[in-house]
Amino acid sequence: MNLQKCAVIGCGFVGASIAFSLTESGLFSELVLIDVNKEKAEGEAMDLNHGVPFARPMKIWAGSWEDTKDCGLIIVTAGANQKPEETRMDLVHKNVKILKSIFKELGKQNCDGILLIVSNPVDILTYAAVKLSGFPKERVLGSGTVLDTARLKYLLGQRFGVDSRSVHAFIIGEHGDSELAVWSSANISGVDLADFFQMAGGDRRAEQSSFYESVRDSAYEIIAKKGATYYAIAMAVRRIAECIVRDEHSVLPVSTLLSGEYGLSDLCMGVPSIVDRGGVEKVLEIPLDIEERRRLRESAEALHKVLETLNLEEE
Fold first, then answer.
1. Over the stretch 232-254, which tens digit does the pLDDT of each residue have?
2. Is the pTM of this model over 0.90?
3. 216: region left, alpha or beta (phi > 0 left; psi from -120 to 50 alpha)
4. What are the pLDDT digits (tens) for 183-207?
């Protein structure tokens, strides 16, 4: 297994943006692009290769399933696009079918790398990947609420005039309509968020509600304006890849299989987890107040209802 080799499966807007972000990152020495439309993958590889002289030495090519055999990281972005007025959950059955076809091919390669699911609905597809891939659960993770959390940090940074990297707050649960913001432990460099609101003035509860709704609905707004979201998720995936390749043991709210954490089991959702070279090392159970626990259970119930409709038997 070559940790310096990465595969991106799916070369649409999201997959191509991820490939571009990874090319600039210098994390990998090899990047293989796979798409049902081989010419699309070839065109993306050509375009990226012409930028390599401005980055670091790297081999980029449109490959086949055999090229994934020794990949340290396999990023799955393939799937139907979310359309205006369509929820991420509306995509589920179409994309599970696509995922089955992918793992039918990947299963022949006996890869020992890590699977990172980005396709939506990401929590449902991460769960399907755990069940269909045969990979150990710690080596299967989804992008989860990493992007949602970044969106919240950006808004809070703008509100208080501070570097968004100094904002410490999480969006957890489903990457979708039932996600929740963990306000009870949110802080800016150790200063409780409530204290910042007190210093800045304004209606804290109303503003928090507005920030949460903006984060929850931002993808719909972007899709309505430009047709798809892809730049920020590409940067989020790059950050996850950094944690894996550099063995950082960093904490990110990736989607991972829960086995009793937060009182929840047999589903995947975005929760703070330690991410390193092995994938998900450990799920962290951060403190939640009563209302946050209730909303997390509701988010889990929403996911369970969808999971009950799936047929994850191999075809």
1. 999 999 999 999 999 999 999 99
2. yes
3. alpha
4. 999 999 999 999 998 888 878 899 9
Catalytic residue numbers read 175
Query: Domains in the chain, start-ordered, CATH in brackets?
Result: 2-142 (3.40.50.720), 146-307 (3.90.110.10)
User: Contact, 43 vs 260, CB < 8 A?
Assistant: no
* Secondary structure of the chain as H, E, C letters: CEEEEEEEECCCHHHHHHHHHHHHHCCCCEEEEECCCHHHHHHHHHHHHCCHHHCCCCEEEECCHHHHCCEEEEEECCCCCCCCCCCHHHHHHHHHHHHHHHHHHHCCCCCCCEEEECCCCHHHHHHHHHHHHCCCHHHEEECCCHHHHHHHHHHHHHHHCCCHHHEEEEEEECCCCCCEEEEEEEEECCEEHHHHHHHHCCCHHHHHHHHHHHHHHHHHHHHHHHCCCCHHHHHHHHHHHHHHHCCCCEEECCEEEEECHHHCEEEEEECCEEEECCEEEEECCCCCCHHHHHHHHHHHHHHHHHHCCCCCCCC
- Both tokens of 114, joined, read 């890590």
